[in-house]
Task: structure prediction
Amino acid sequence: MNSGPKGKKNRNQRGGRQEKEELAINDEIRAQEVRLVGDNVEEGIYPILKALKIADEQGLDLIEIAPMASPPVCKVMDYQKYQFQQKKKLKEQKAKATKVVVKEIRFGPQTDEHDYNFKLKHAIGFLKEGAKVKSYVFFKGRSILFKEQGEVLLLRFANDLEDYAKVDQMPVLEGKRMTIMLSPKKAAPKKKDAQPAKDDGAAQKPENAEVKQAERPEGDTKAEV
Result:
């Protein structure tokens, strides 16, 4: 069906080359029979020629939306409208996707107390902002002999952060690094006040909450302390 009513498209009308991510439409569909879906059509399994004729009669395209199904699923609709709907859906999905922020904190196997507390404070700040914390002990040269000491340090770190974080990954040695991964805990919902309401009808004022705003780049973001 290289020709037909207005709106029908073939390989040449899409630029002379079919991209891998594009779906087969109209005469590009190679299946002998297809499952037909769409508005104003009786859904069911049709020979490909019959399905093409149904689309042709409505001045629309036959779009192979599920080529791996048995038989392939084809939809009767305008191809440009279908592309627009798919792009809009993809844009909405990207907007809803959670952007993961990861902050890195590095220790030595023999980190002193002052340095430890300094980095602990930073980790609490990162977790409160909603970022993950990837903390690791770096073993340089012969310091690998102190790997047990590094593991104890990371477990202490996780324990000191238990009010703010949950452990995603226990300490694991990867080359010269022993790493632990922490995710921020979701804030527990406040319990409702069970006391009876006052007769004067005065509503209790909610406690002031400090709101922090911070710009974050898209995608994974790493910062090392």
Summary: The longest helix spans residues 79-96.
